[in-house]
Design brief:
Glutamine Phosphoribosylpyrophosphate, subunit 1, domain 1; alpha+beta; two-stranded antiparallel sheet
């Protein structure tokens, strides 16, 4: 969620009802806007660091994205972005989208 220009995150693996069935969740995620995402991993592996939405702090402000699908040119994009100084925090192809947005004008 987002509140007062700050992102609050809650990430879990498993079924939605089991992972987020806690009534205390609304206290940990303040604000009036949020992004939720469920994912069956087809690329990038089932690691906690790959759970979406993914977040980035940019000069223009924060951004969060959730993406389903596969970037067919991810290996190329990843190599290109890393060669230009990008540091990836996950193995998800969706993170490349954040790096591309961060570099756009």
């Amino acid at each position: 969620s987002v509140h007062d220009e700050l992102f609050y995150t809650e990430r879990h693996q498993g079924l939605v009802g089991e992972a987020f069935g806690n009534a205390e969740l609304s206290k940990r995620l303040p604000g009036t806007a949020a992004i939720g995402h469920t994912r069956y991993s087809t690329a990038g592996g089932s690691f906690l660091r790959n759970i979406q939405p993914m977040f980035a702090d940019l000069d223009q402000g924060g951004i969060a994205i959730a993406h389903n699908g596969n970037l067919t040119n991810f290996k190329y994009l990843h190599a290109q972005l890393v060669s230009e100084g990008a540091i990836f925090q996950s193995t998800s192809d969706s993170e490349a989208i954040l790096h591309l947005i961060a570099r756009s004008r």
